[in-house]
């Protein structure tokens, strides 16, 4: 991601303009790349050096939605739910069956693998947290299913060595996180919330970032 704010703003405007269409739009990516290079004004040598450095490095994307392949059917369902005003956090559970079927479709899996290669990312911290414990566990189960089914491409990580091995083996590592304390119980029963923390830890939820949350604030 470019560090320049103008380039970031351009990407966000393009995304909003397009809406959710499909996983890889090469013309869209080319426009973003051209705009970014125009803003940053790299020389050809600097650009090539940056690409080579990125390819050799272990690259983290610090906050991501749970990754999965996309299909026309899934995109249509997502757009339908968004048009109905459904909360984005509920979309995963409402589309789980479609996504589970897709990870065994070779066409979509090939496009999914290509999207990973385009990103150049080694490891992502994938957001599992929703507004309650059961929904969070269901989301973790969905992610686990994708990772297990696509084990030639993905690994779930709980340590640095896993990430290094993923890089060495040409795979991509996924670490789970939640962004606030709502899945623990929402501040109603402290003792129960401590039990829920233990439960999620056993399910290899290693990172929890508390931000702008009523429970953590209280």
TrEMBL record:
The protein's name: Uncharacterized protein
The species this protein was found in: marine sediment metagenome
